[in-house]
Amino acid sequence: MDAQTLLKLLGEGTVQTLIMTLVGTLVSYMIGLPVGVSLITSSPNGIRPMPVYNKVMGFIVNVIRSMPFLILMIAFMPYIRILIGTGIGTAATTAALILAAWPFVARMVEQSLLEVDPGVIEAAQAMGASNMQIIRKVLLLEARPSLLNGAAVATITILGYSAMAGTLGGGGLGDIAIRFGHYRFQPTVMWITIIVLVVLVQIMQEIGIRVAAKLDNRIN
Amino acid sequence: MAENIISLQGVTKEFTTKSGPVVALRDINLDIERGDSYGIIGLSGAGKSTLVRTINLLEEPTEGKVLFDGRVLTGLKSKELNLQRRKISMIFQQFNLLMQRDAVGNICFPLEIAGVPKAEAVAKAEELLKVVDLEERAHSYPSQLSGGQKQRVAIARALASDPEVILCDEATSALDPKTTRSILTLLRKINEERGITLVVITHEMGVIKQLCNKVAVIEGGEIVERGPVKEIFANPKTKAARKLFFPDAGEREMPHVRTAVKNRLRLAFNEQTAYKPIIANMILEIGEPVNMLYANMDALLDEQKGQMVIALSDDKEIAEKQKAYLMKEGVNFTEIPEDSDYYDYPVNGPEEEVSE
Fold first, then answer.
1. What does the DSSP assignment read for B98-114?
2. What is the pLDDT of residues B122-154, one digit of tens each?
3. Which residue of A19, A26, A27, A197 lies most exposed, with the fewest beta carbons within 10 A?
């Protein structure tokens, strides 16, 4: 394979990986963030305890989290195929990513919100804040730096999942590493994709740390 | 007579713990009048923090009613309760400020909750920063402020919603003595100048003396004694009250006050008698010395109050003369029986109610 073809391949793979990762992360947060918040508010010491919901949702999250991503993806592929019409490529991989990642995101969010001082929540309640106001103005705002750090970790994890999905014809950098690096014995391609992945992870982690620190008013 | 702004009627609070139910409050009846600065004092675990939290229903009573300004709060829907809560502000031992907002942002918070337009809220916050003497820290974050400054921001935040009551939960317990004094002065000013009712939870007598006109002593989840601070200070009827009001007269520091001396009297001086050299005059007139075992002067708001334990002459006749002299001078006293604890007998004699 000449350098130009390789470059084009890598460029396409990187774009696919980034799209899968970003869309996957975004949708995972659209599901995981509300679920994470609800796990906090419905807990016995939460602002609106709902023991049954808390137990059931906690159980669902744990079940999905206990399945290794590749197994989960293979197990759910038939249903994903029914749902979106295809079992391979970036669309199918993104669906699998979301399925695997939202419970992870929910737990990350839950952990971040646990760091919010219960005294501040109590103060807001004493002021007559509604539960919705407490969630929006106290929980999410006070936990913002931790939520952003968590988001960086979640994005990187989802990037890793997307690379794994490549082994099952998922597209992106993982796909290139498997198809060319492994099946066609081209170690150079393998190592180049690894390097690209490392660079992507570094960039995401740096962005996460910097944005979180910039938006944290506790440190000055 | 001012009307009651807060009224607790038969309030009981039970917590369920792993080792069974625990009664934190038992049948509390308490009326707080508009404009009062009402102290609630007790040792830790007495139930005072739970008590103050039942007033704004952060703790829902297991039994009983809570009235605010004549309105029953218990059983209100959360929407209506939230509207009432805006008139009852609260300040805390740990300040409980939002760490991600600056001083102005924190003070605006209750206004935001109430839906006040932002420009109006900011203007009010800046005005309130002047009240608490912190104008120059408007855009500092809590992590950049000292404990006293944080509590000033919290007080400004409490004032923002124009409350009728401020609940102070150990508001000075995390502060050093000098800062404590300045915060208490500020709270007293707010009480006097704005007529805002204060409910002051504390374990420190000094806070009550500097800030409150009335006090309730709470022990084991029950109010054991209550009344104007001056009266309770002059004549604490229960052992719990005496222990809180005169902690340093305890047996550990002064065993001689407790038992070793005979013919002991416990004297109480009020505004009229505190400034006169009554004991010195008595010694000169009767010509017999007295043994002074304990003495303490204190300022309650602006009044002087004193406590003293003396031992009279062994000669019965002279002792009678000494007592007659004290009575003539208007000093309240009680005889402390031999071998009994200093705390066991109130000034007006053991016949009055003494709780365990």
1. -TTS-HHHHHHHHHHHT
2. 999 999 999 999 999 999 999 999 999 999 999
3. A26
CB burial of residue A66 (10 Å; 0-12, 13-18, 19+): exposed
Closest Cβ–Cβ partner in A127, A133, A218 for B85: A127
In a domain, A219, yes or no: no
Could A218 and B143 be called an inter-chain contact, meaning their C-beta atoms sit closer than 8 Å? yes
Per DSSP, what are the bridge partners of residue B12? B63
Residues of B in contact with A217 (CB under 8 A): 99-102, 141, 143
Best residue of B49, B60, B90, B100 to probe chain A, by most A CBs closer than 10 Å:
B100
Q: Which residues pair with B226 in a beta bridge?
A: B216
| Residue matched to tokens 């031999």 | B338
Domains and CATH numbers, chain B: 4-239 (3.40.50.300), 242-344 (3.30.70.260)
Q: Does B80 touch chain A (CB under 8 A)?
A: no
Q: How many domains does chain A have?
A: 1
Q: Does B15 touch chain A (CB under 8 A)?
A: no
pTM: 0.83
What is the model's pLDDT at position B341? Answer: 62
